[in-house]
Automatic annotation (TrEMBL):
Keywords: Membrane, Transmembrane, Transmembrane helix
Signal sequence, start to end: none
Designated name of the protein: DUF6534 domain-containing protein
Domain called DUF6534: residue spans: 168-254
Length: 313
C-alpha cells in the first residue's frame, strides 16, 4: 500500500503534468494557426517572436515526452528511481521554460512601455525579468551535473522558490502598473470609461493567470516536499505563458469591436496590445490620443444635446 501511495504521489503527478502540457500545447497550436490566419500583416518581428515561442515549446514538449517514457518504461519497477542520475531531457525543459518566460514577459513589458511611455519603470521591469532568467539559467546549469533528482531539489530549494515567486511578482507588478495608468485616464464620459474598464479587466485577466499559477507551484513545492504534485503543474507552466501571449495577440480582433461606433477606439485598442506591429491599413495611435478624441466626441454630443434642449425651451 505504501509503495502504491508513493507511486501515486511521484510518478502519477509527472504523468498528469505531461498530459496537461500536451493538452495545452494543442491549444497553443490552434492559437498559432488563428494568429497567422487573422493577422498576416503583422510585423516580421512579431511573427518571429511567435514562431520562436512555438518552436521552443515544441522542443520542450519533446523533452517532457522522453522524460515520462524514461520514468515509466525504461525504469519501470526501479526502486531507486529518485536517487538515480537523470537524462538531459529532465534539465533542458528548465532552460526552455526560462526562455519562454523571458520572451513573454519582455513582450508585456514592451506593451506597458507603449501604453505608458514610462521608460524608467519599464527598464526596471526588464532588469527584473533578465535577473530572473539568469537565476533560472544558474539552476538549469547546475542541474546538468546533478547526481539525483532528490538531491538537486534539496540543494536548490531556495533558488527554485525564489525564481517562481519573483516571476509571479513581476507579472503582478506589470499588470498593476498598466491598470493604474489606465485608471488615471478615466473620465466622466461613458464611452471613455467603458473602453478603459474593459482594457483594465483584460489586463488583469492576462497578467494574473501566470502569476497565480506560479504562486500555486511555489506553495505546493514548499508545503508538500515529499511528493511531486508541484511538478505536475511546473511541467505545464511554460504553456500558460505561451498561451497568454497568443491570446493577447488574437484578442485584438474582439477588442476592435469593443466600441463599434468609434473607429478611433478600435484602432488604438488593437495597437495598445500590439508590440510594434505595422499593418497597411492602420496607424499607430497612442492610447492617450484615443482617450482625448473620445472625450472630445462625448463632449460634443453633450453640447449638442444641451443646445437642442435649450432651443426647445
Amino acid at each position: 500500500m505504501a509503495a502504491a501511495t508513493s507511486i501515486d504521489l511521484t510518478l502519477g503527478p509527472m504523468l498528469t503534468g505531461v498530459l496537461l502540457a500536451t493538452f495545452l500545447f494543442g491549444v497553443e497550436c490552434v492559437q498559432l494557426y488563428m494568429y497567422f490566419r487573422d493577422f498576416p500583416k503583422d510585423s516580421q518581428l512579431l511573427k518571429g517572436l511567435v514562431t520562436i515561442v512555438w518552436v521552443v515549446e515544441l522542443t520542450h514538449q519533446g523533452c517532457t515526452m522522453h522524460s515520462v517514457y524514461w520514468l515509466l518504461i525504461s525504469n519501470f519497477g526501479n526502486p531507486h528511481l529518485t536517487t538515480s542520475p537523470v537524462p538531459a531531457t529532465f534539465v533542458l525543459p528548465i532552460l526552455f521554460s526560462a526562455i519562454i518566460v523571458l520572451l513573454v514577459q519582455t513582450f508585456f513589458a514592451h506593451r506597458l512601455w507603449r501604453s505608458t511611455n514610462k521608460t524608467i519603470l519599464c527598464i526596471i521591469f526588464m532588469i527584473l525579468v533578465v535577473a530572473r532568467f539568469i537565476l533560472t539559467g544558474v539552476i538549469a546549469g547546475s542541474a546538468i551535473n546533478m547526481q539525483s533528482f532528490a538531491s538537486f531539489l534539496k540543494q536548490f530549494k531556495a533558488l527554485i522558490t525564489a525564481a517562481w515567486v519573483s516571476g509571479a511578482c513581476i507579472d503582478i507588478l506589470m499588470s498593476l502598473s498598466l491598470c493604474y495608468d489606465l485608471h488615471t485616464r478615466r473620465s466622466g464620459f461613458v464611452r471613455t470609461s467603458r473602453l478603459i474598464d474593459r482594457l483594465i479587466v483584460w489586463c488583469v485577466a492576462t497578467g494574473l493567470l501566470t502569476s497565480v499559477y506560479a504562486l500555486i507551484i511555489a506553495i505546493c513545492f514548499l508545503t508538500m516536499p515529499d511528493n511531486l504534485i508541484w511538478d505536475a503543474m511546473y511541467i505545464a507552466a511554460s504553456r500558460f505563458f505561451a498561451n497568454t501571449l497568443l491570446a493577447s495577440l488574437n484578442a485584438r480582433r474582439s477588442i476592435r469591436r469593443m466600441d463599434s461606433q468609434s473607429t478611433t477606439n478600435a484602432i488604438s485598442s488593437s495597437q495598445f496590445i500590439d508590440i510594434g506591429a505595422r499593418t497597411h491599413n492602420t496607424l499607430d495611435v497612442p492610447l492617450t490620443v484615443v482617450v482625448t478624441e473620445t472625450k472630445t466626441k462625448d463632449l460634443e454630443n453633450g453640447l449638442q444635446r444641451g443646445m437642442h434642449k435649450h432651443a426647445r425651451s
